[in-house]
Amino acid sequence: MRDIVRVQNGTSIYNSSNLGGMKKSTNKLPIIICATAGILLGSFAFKVSIAGINKTDTNDSSKSGLSDALNNKSTNYEAIDKFNDILFNSFGIDRYNPITILTANYPYFKMYYNNEYQDYLVQTQIELEKKALEEKKIQEAKEKALEANAQIKENTETAENTSSESSANTFQEVSSSITYEGDEEDEEKVTDSVVTSGKVNIINQTNYKIDVNKLLAEPLNLPNKKGPQILIYHTHTTESYLKNLEQLTMKNVESRTTDSKYNVTRVGEALINNLKKYDINVLHDTTIHDKDYNSSYGNSLKTLTKYVDKYSSLKMTIDLHRDAISGQKLRVVKTINGKNAAQIMFVIGTDSKLPNSKWKENLKLALKIQARLNELYPGLVKPVYISKNRYNQHLTNGSVIIEIGGDGNTIDECVRSTEYLARAINDVLYKSK
To answer: Does pLDDT of 28 surpass 80?
Structure first.
């Protein structure tokens, strides 16, 4: 038995010659129903869309023809027919040949029949969102580029304005080397009464009660490992000294310089050479941290952290400075063995402002070295200055600031002092055991 389903133009859409074929035909029934529903709904939708004809993607001549036909009230039905012809044709459909409707929509019917239509909708939505995201990224990139160009322009203008200033203003001039610590509150160095205990003198800027004798009696809690033992670095790397005593009475003598022959790095190098006489493994970092003076301690903290992380053997980290006061050159000397030597001062930070669990161990080391210097070279060392600031001394036991001389001392006087300081450090770290 042979069944043939035909459409208007006589085209066969299905043939079968046996009962099995009939069963297959039954399975295709949903496609035929969907096609028929699509034709009916499509025709209705096209008629409802007459008011939106100017939005359809047809050519200008078609639109003109439709407009003329629709405005002719006497031939309203003819106008509708003409409109339908044009509208259907714009979608590649012949309304007198329904198979073209089926052909145009067959991919969607097939997806629906195979339960793939929902996936198609989801994928379409994903692609739309992806495209929108890409467009958003492109727009954001354009906006960032505009902002970057504006910043470059602003920086250029600032640099041009700055370049007109004199070279004398390249560095910000300040007095004391321990006045500023990063963004902390500025605290002027004041002269308090000196507290003396045995061979040790202190100036205490904090509210803590310091038991000097107890600290001197306690052993040091320092690493005992092979490797570098001492690190010398400079938070205020450009602090300078006088070339000779004639400069002491001169005006406009700069108190900072990048010339390593006359700044604290020269004194640091001299201290290293004297420590090496005792076979002490010493490191020296000469990074300039004080181009922006108020950022000095933040900059030197990065340097110090790098060394502390790398060398767990460090017994002592010395931030080497020189002192100064506002308004005049500070000259601090003591005659040792018939020659002038610059006085030395230890500065110890506490946890009064920022956490620092190491401060008592740091103070203990400073007190022991001061006591030894007072035994060997009375008057060479000034009182230990105990500050409310932290000064990056929270990373290790044995972290100290050492100020050698002031901005009124000659470079030779400060270099000479390093010989005496090196001996006291060696005695405390190695001979006191």
So the answer is: no
